[in-house]
Amino acid sequence: MSVSTIPVQNSRFKFGWIILLISATLMTLNHFSLIFILDEPTLFAGFAVFNLYALIVILIPFRRGEKWAWGATWLLPIGLALPALISNDPGIAIFYYAVAAVCGLGLLLTMRDFSSK
């Protein structure tokens, strides 16, 4: 029987992980609610599923310290910044860029724990 344990992480890792966890959770809830509020439910359903995938990766393999999860989690800030590039609304673009920057910061805070293994 295999017992998976969460390795001991320093406070920088925990802070970065919490930043990523909160960002992914809030963006999942945001896009899920926009399915019912705005006129493009398919678009926001896709974004909600994308953010839910990132949330699951952050919750389980990222927390365990699996190296592939750190690389895969970079899809979150990239996936948030790309819609801002094509947005015609500067307010929405700033919001997405800000959340992408916060996610990037969270990933950079955890980088040392993944690269030292």
Question: What would you say this structure looks like, in words?
Answer:
- The protein is mainly α and 117 residues long.
- It has one domain.
- The protein contains five helices and no strands.
- α1 runs antiparallel to α2, α1 runs antiparallel to α5 and α4 runs antiparallel to α5.
- The longest helix has 27 residues.
Describe, in short, the structure shown.
By secondary structure, the protein is mostly helical.
β-strand amount: under 5%
Helix-and-strand structural type? mainly alpha
Shape: elongated
Radius of gyration: 15 Å
Taken together, the total number of domains comes to 1
Helix content: over 70%
Largest sheet: none
* Beginning-to-end CA distance, first to last residue: 24 Å
Describe the structure using short key phrases.
mainly alpha; 5 helices; 82% helix; 117 residues
SSE map:
Layout: H1 11-37, H2 41-64, H3 67-73, H4 75-86, H5 90-115
